[in-house]
Each structure stands twice: as C-alpha cells, then as structure tokens.
Amino acid sequence: MSIETLIKELSGTIQKVTVDIAVEEVGVVAGVHDGIARVTGLRNAESAEMLLFPGNVMGLALNLEEDAVGVILIDNGSQIKEGDTVKRTGKILSVPVSNECIGRVLDPLGSPVDGKGALKAESYYLLDKKAPGVMDREPVTEPVQTGIKSIDSMIPIGRGQRELIIGDRQTGKTTVAIDAILNQKGKDLLCIYVAIGQKKSKVARVINTLEEHGAMEYTTVVLAGASDGPAFSYLAPYTGAALGEYFMDQGKDVLVVYDDLSKHAAAYREISLLLRRPPGREAYPGDIFYLHSRLLERSARRNKEHGGGSLTALPIIETQAGDISAYIPTNVISITDGQIFLETRLFYRGVRPAINIGNSVSRVGSSAQIPAMKKVSGRMKLDLAQFRELEAFAQFASDLDPSTKKALERGERIVELLKQSAYSPVPVGVQVVLIYAVNNGYLDTIPMERIKEWEKSITLFLESSHANIVGALEKGWDEETEDELKRVLNEFEKIWK
What is the DSSP string of 76-139? Predict the structure, then answer.
C-alpha cells in the first residue's frame, strides 16, 4: 500500500484533538516577616496588583524590584511560609461598590463587618484613581452646613472643598466631623466616615451616636481598627474615596471624613520601612506627600457635563503639643483648602468647640455661604480677633476706656454664644438670627450667665411661632427680610424682659 493511500485512510479516522493549556505565572515566597512577603518569579507583576497566596490570603504588590516583588499581606498571613507558591490575579486592587453600602459598616476591602448580611456589588472601583481634571470641575459655591455656629459663620465649608480639622488629641476633632454628619439629616448629602487605625470601641461609640440620631440612614462607615494591622489602615482612606466617587458619578453630593491621616501616614511609614524603602524626614518615605495629595485631590465639584456631583473631604490630623509646623501637618495644610484649628487651651477653658479663629481659615470663604449668613457674619471674625488682642492687653490694664470695655463685652458675648454642646447642630436659619442679634446689640444688656438660657428661649420662640422667618433667611436676604427679623427680635426682647 502506498503512503498516499495510507494517509487518505487515516485522515478519515483520526479526529482532531484540541488541548487547552492554561498558563499561570507562579512565584515563590522567598521570605516573610511582619506581614510583608518577598516573592520571586513574578517578573510581570504590576504595581498594586492583587496576588493570591495559599489559603486564599490576598497580598498587594508594592515593591517591584529587579529580582523580587515586595508584597504586603492584607488578610491574616500568619500561615504563609517560605517556599509557598504565589499566583498573579491580573487584577489591580479595587473595591466592590453599590447603593446597598449606605447604612453599612465595611472593612477596607469592601466586605461588611456589621453582621447584617452580604452586599451585592453593582460595580468595582479602583482604590487608587486619577483625580478629576481642571476642565471637569466647577467653582465651589454650594455650602456644606455643619450646624456648628463658629464654622458656618466664619470658616464655611463648600461642596467639593477639602477642609482640614487639626489639633492635639482629645480636643474634639472627631466630634466636629460627627456634628457635620448629623446635620445632614433630611438634606441631599451622603456621608462616609473612614476610621483609620482607631480603637474599635471608639468607632462603636461613633456608630452608636450616628444610629441614635438617625444618621446611619445616609452614612457608610469604613473601619480599619487599631488591631487590624497597617495594611488595612493604609487602604482605608482609598476605599472611602472610591465609594465616594461611585456616588459622585451618580450626580450625588458626598461628604467623606478621614479620621485620621496621621495614623494613615504612620501605617504607610511602617509598611515602607518593612519593605526597606529609604526613610526620609522623621523616617517617613519621600512619597508621603504624594500619597495624601493624590487622595485629597479626588475631592471636587464636578460640572454639569461630567455629572454634577461633588466629593467634600474633611481630613483629620493630630498634632503633638499644638505643633502645626511638623512634617505631616504642614504637608496636609498645603494640600487642603483651609483648616479648622482646635486648641487645647481653649478646650480646657470650656470654649467648645475649641476653635482658634486666628489660626483657622477657609480658602473658599463666603462663596460657600448662603446670602443671609454672608451678610450677618461679615465682620464677626474681625471682631473676635480684635477681642482676643484686647483680652490679652486688658489683663495688664486697670482702667479701660468705654470703647475698649464695650468691645471686650461684645467679644465675650460672641464667644459665649458660639459655644455649643456636642451632637447638637443648629439649623443655619437659626444661626443667622443668633449672629444678627449679637452683632446688633440685642445681647448687650443680658448677663453672661444667662446667654445660653436666652439662646434656648429664642430658638424655641422661633420654632413655635416664627418658623417662616427662619425659612426666609435660608432662602435669601433683602430689606423686607431684615425688617421682619428686627420685628421678631424686638417682639422676643419684650417677652424676655
């Protein structure tokens, strides 16, 4: 039989066999210590790529060296040992997002930790994402009402702004941020509270406060506890930003609180030193400024062509002995659009919130105020600054002239009126009435010890019989509204007397 005949017969009987060969790039753990693994063999691994270790432990590729990859272990990697195989996933670190996240407590990987069941992911957002460009943005003009009189009147925050809350420990930084969240009840602003390296008992108290005031209905909590390790603390603010961007892309306004970025910087320093990156000032790596700037730059107010949503950031920084010239505080001050400086000395004197008006600033300013507040609070910051100067001078002077005495008395009443209990935000219309009253001498004859009583009484008076003037002040300001406001204040003055 010829070869041609044989081939012809065989071709009718032999079927093609297709073999699928799955090719995986696999590496080997060369060493592991303190939550950091050094992996060899993954020559094509990408920065921030998720790597899979035995036992479904996830790792994040951070150091891409010539002969190895430095990986931070995200889950509990205590069982990982030298010689274990590591697989590439081909996925850059991202977090599942959905509208179901509202009202839930999540870990930095987007998994719920509140025991209320699993979440259905509508999409996945990259944790590290490029900020909106200049042409995508529009000026910050709409206010974020915090309900705190001293902030809304003198250090206003706008939607899309980045306003730093800075001060020593135990001066009420978190309380200011939580007050701002509580004041959004019934408004069109979603909130995200990111706890970075905080004690879980403290975060539980915060969540309890939010639930008591009905604020968890529009708030998401991202929790990286002090016991969760530096990897979670490093990732937490990016998870908060990614979740905020998801809502912003839907055209919604979002407020995100990073509590606090000092612990975030410390976690990144720990990771970097373990990865043997060269230390810089105060042992922080050289890119710590870039780390925080690219996080906070993601806050913006988008223009209508790009969805019209906004992301407002309230980063918190803890200082040591009031030193705002330290490395991390100066970094974040230069990134943000102003700061609210809380002072220990004022806190212990009973001025709460303990805001140092002289060191606090909003670089958006009156652009982020309603017209009525802009009108009544214009000279208030100057009056307070003048009062602080006169107060220091008056300690050494026995005899004061009448104008100095009047300025001191007015300043004392402004300070007393601006004092506010925790978790008791004041509606902006009521704030306008109070500030107009103190600026125009309606409190000059009221004894200092009765000012809080006067404030409670006029608030009840406005709520019970003059809600219309409060609503009118929130909408605008004109001569007719001012005349009505004077009439209401004169009427209350007669009742009070």
Answer: --TT--TT-EEEEEEEE-EEEE-GGGTT-EE-TTS-B-SSS-----SEEEESS-PPPPGGGB--
For residues 188 and 253, is the Cβ–Cβ distance under 8 A? Answer: yes
Say which DSSP state 370 is in. -
| Tokens at 171, concatenated | 């001066």
The dihedrals phi and psi of 223, each to the nearest 5 degrees, come to -115, 120
CA distance linking residue 176 with residue 182, whole number of Å? 10
Per the CB < 8 A criterion, the answer to whether 461 and 446 are in contact is: no
Mean pLDDT of 45-70: 93
Residues comprising the chain, all counted: 497
pLDDT at 17: 47
d(CA 253, CA 302): 10
Q: Catalytic residue, from 363, 379, 388, 450: name it.
A: 363
Using alpha carbons only, give the angle 321, 324, 327 rounded to the nearest 5 degrees.
105
Closest to 410 (Cα-Cα) out of 379, 373, 375 = 379
Do the beta carbons of residue 449 and residue 413 sit within 8 Å? no
> Rounded distance, CA 358 to CA 349, Å?
17
Q: How far apart are CA 388 and CA 216, in angstroms?
A: 39
Nearest to 258 by CA among 183, 336, 188, 369: 336
Which DSSP symbol is given to 321? T
User: Is 363 a residue of the active site?
Assistant: yes
The one-letter code for the residue type at 21 is I
- Going by pLDDT thresholds of 50, 70 and 90, the confidence category of residue 194 is very high
CB 313 within 8 A of CB 159: no
Averaged pLDDT for residues 151-157: 95
pTM: 0.92
Look at residue 13 and tell me whether its pLDDT is greater than 70.
no
Q: Tell me the torsion sign for CA atoms 455, 181, 310, 131.
A: positive
Q: Could you tell me if 385 and 358 are in contact, meaning their C-beta atoms sit under 8 angstroms apart?
A: yes
